[in-house]
Design a protein that fits this description.
Blueprint lengths: L1 H10 L2 E7 L2 E7 L3 E3 L2 E7 L3 H8 L2 E8 L2 E12 L2 H10 L14 E15 L5 E4 L1
Antiparallel strand pairs: 1-2, 1-5, 3-4, 4-7, 5-6, 6-7, 7-8
Length: 130
């Protein structure tokens, strides 16, 4: 899991795919946090991405850096604990201009049932499950 966290943190931008009805939705994200042994992302509760995840928590994440790409198939489960929201915002203080842990809008999702695959054109894929 640490290797997945490090890759996403260094990539800075990754792409999150969700489902809305029968239509995939993909958007860039930049938050990744390691909290209590789990990986977390952050968004606004009022955003479409959060609504899509409440309806169907299955998601995929994809990032690319230095000739290697990472694909993660997972479930994203909301963690409504204040501690989880605060930890994320402390890790990304620039988000505090738009969010705070007590605003009723900040939402963090934990990656669960995750299969992460590192791939490149020069080596064999490596899979990590958590």
């Amino acid at each position: 899991m640490q290797e997945v966290y490090d890759f996403l943190k260094n990539a800075e931008t990754y792409y999150l795919a969700t489902v809305e009805g029968d239509q995939p939705r993909v958007r860039p994200f930049g938050t990744i946090d390691l909290f209590e042994g789990g990986l977390y992302i952050q968004t606004g509760r009022k955003k479409d991405v959060a609504k899509q995840l409440y309806n169907n928590p299955k998601a995929e994440i994809c990032a690319f850096k230095d000739g290697t790409w990472l694909r993660i198939a997972c479930r994203l489960v909301a963690d409504d604990r204040r501690e989880a929201r605060k930890h994320m915002l402390d890790a990304y203080p620039s988000l505090r201009a738009m969010y705070n842990e007590d605003d009723g809008n900040t939402e963090v999702f934990k990656l669960t049932d995750a299969t992460a695959t590192f791939s490149s054109f020069t080596g064999a894929p490596k899979t990590v499950r958590f």
